[in-house]
């Protein structure tokens, strides 16, 4: 309950709410400790180029769809990418491979989605450098690594940094816990590009190269029978419940509204571990959910359930920028 209230305070207005003033000393302490941690961390460089996809705000902003798009586009360019992740929501302290049948409780929901959608090797671990080395040992054909949500994991040396923002931007612009920022806006001067998912915050530095990302919904597929698909028009007029346990549940709900659907909203915390009781509300209708939620809900839903996949759309110039940076390292 407090976490939801806090997020509303962070993103409801673009200034610090008086209700959060009491957290300012903790934000100052967070700034000092994070700076000290970065200064003391010794980066480890891997034998292949590393592309980090992250953000300076807490919560989801579209990193996973972007990582999937990059993996696909890089394969088109003849590269052999692999993906490493912390595996948030899982219990993988040591490096381990993510298999198609892995449990999200062990490897995390986003890595499992990445493994099922990307077609490339995915490994998780608290130490992303160690996870990367383990992936490369198991898959020597991999010639570059994508790190999903690793901008602040400074133990892993990187060649390209991408910072992702959604329509909420930087919120009130303050560091945790008074605001949603993991690092200050000045950190963006070090990244190679900013990717804006759903509109750019005018407070983002204008000197940084910026790319727009749009998430395009596909056809719904049945949770229990993925080969069975339907379009939004086939669901219109039915009693619908929409579930979303992502960084910004409202983004999923707005997408459904854009498809012309009317539904009851059921937001959950990001990475929520669902139980049968959590989903009992949908017994009288049809349940709609995101792909990220779907990997955790198999066997738990009370009835008919449809999953809405999304695909990222970006300018190919982003891949060109990445490949140019990578070639620069390889020439050097």
Total strands: 15
The helix/strand series, from N terminus to C terminus, equals HHEHEEHHEHEEEEEEEHEEHEEH
What gross morphology would you assign? globular
Main beta sheet: 9 strands, mixed
> What share of residues is helical?
25-40%
- Biggest sheet: strand arrangement: 3-4-2-5-1-6-7-8-15
Q: What is the CATH architecture descriptor of one domain?
A: 3-Layer(aba) Sandwich
| Name of the CATH first level of one domain | Alpha Beta
Taking pLDDT < 50 over at least 5 consecutive residues as the criterion, the unreliable ranges are: none
Class inferred from helices and paired strands: alpha/beta
Rg over CA atoms, rounded to whole Å, is 20 Å
Strand content: 15-25%
Q: First CA to last CA: what distance?
A: 52 Å
> Please, how many helices?
9
**Please, what is the average pLDDT?**
94
CATH topology of one domain: Rossmann fold
Describe what this molecule looks like in 3D.
The chain is of the alpha/beta class and 332 residues long. Among the domains are: 37-79 and 143-214 and 313-331, Rossmann fold (3-Layer(aba) Sandwich), CATH 3.40.50; 219-308. It is built from 9 helices and 15 strands. It has helices at residues 2-12, 24-40, 63-76, 104-107, 109-118, 128-138, 249-258, 291-297, 317-331; strands spanning 50-54, 81-85, 96-97, 122-124, 144-148, 160-166, 193-197, 210-217, 220-222, 229-230, 240-244, 264-267, 286-290, 305-308, 310-313. The strands form 2 sheets. It has a 9-stranded mixed β-sheet with strand order 3-4-2-5-1-6-7-8-15, with helices on both faces. It has a 6-stranded mixed β-sheet with strand order 10-9-14-13-11-12. The radius of gyration is 20 Å and the shape is globular. The chain starts with a helix and ends with a helix.
């Amino acid at each position: 309950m407090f976490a939801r209230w806090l997020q509303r305070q962070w993103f409801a207005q673009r200034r610090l709410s008086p209700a959060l003033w009491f957290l300012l000393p903790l934000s100052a302490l967070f700034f000092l400790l994070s700076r000290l941690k970065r200064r003391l961390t010794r980066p480890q460089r891997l034998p292949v180029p590393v592309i980090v996809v992250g953000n300076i705000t807490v919560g989801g902003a579209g990193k996973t769809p972007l990582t999937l798009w990059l993996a696909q586009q890089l394969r088109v360019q003849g590269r052999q990418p692999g993906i490493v992740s912390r595996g948030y929501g899982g219990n993988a302290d040591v490096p381990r491979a993510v298999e198609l049948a892995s449990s999200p409780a062990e490897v995390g929901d986003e890595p499992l989605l990445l493994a099922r959608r990307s077609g490339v090797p995915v490994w998780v671990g608290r130490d992303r450098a160690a996870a990367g080395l383990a992936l490369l040992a198991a898959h020597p054909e991999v010639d570059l690594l994508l790190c999903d949500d690793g901008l602040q994991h400074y133990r892993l040396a990187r060649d390209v940094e991408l910072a992702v923002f959604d329509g909420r931007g930087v919120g009130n612009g303050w560091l945790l816990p008074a605001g949603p920022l993991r690092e200050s806006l000045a950190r963006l001067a070090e990244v190679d590009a900013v990717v804006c998912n759903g509109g750019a915050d005018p407070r983002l530095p204008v000197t940084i190269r910026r790319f727009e990302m749009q998430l395009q919904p596909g056809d719904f597929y049945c949770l229990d029978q993925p080969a069975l698909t339907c379009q939004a028009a086939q669901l219109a007029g039915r009693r619908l419940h929409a579930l979303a346990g992502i960084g910004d549940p409202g983004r999923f709900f707005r997408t459904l509204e854009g498809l012309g659907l009317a539904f009851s909203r059921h937001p959950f915390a990001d990475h929520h571990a669902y139980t049968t009781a959590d989903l009992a509300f949908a017994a009288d209708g049809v349940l709609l959910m995101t792909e990220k939620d779907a990997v955790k809900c198999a066997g738990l839903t009370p009835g008919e359930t449809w999953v809405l996949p999304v695909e990222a759309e970006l300018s190919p110039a982003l891949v060109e920028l990445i490949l140019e940076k990578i070639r620069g390292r390889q020439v050097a």
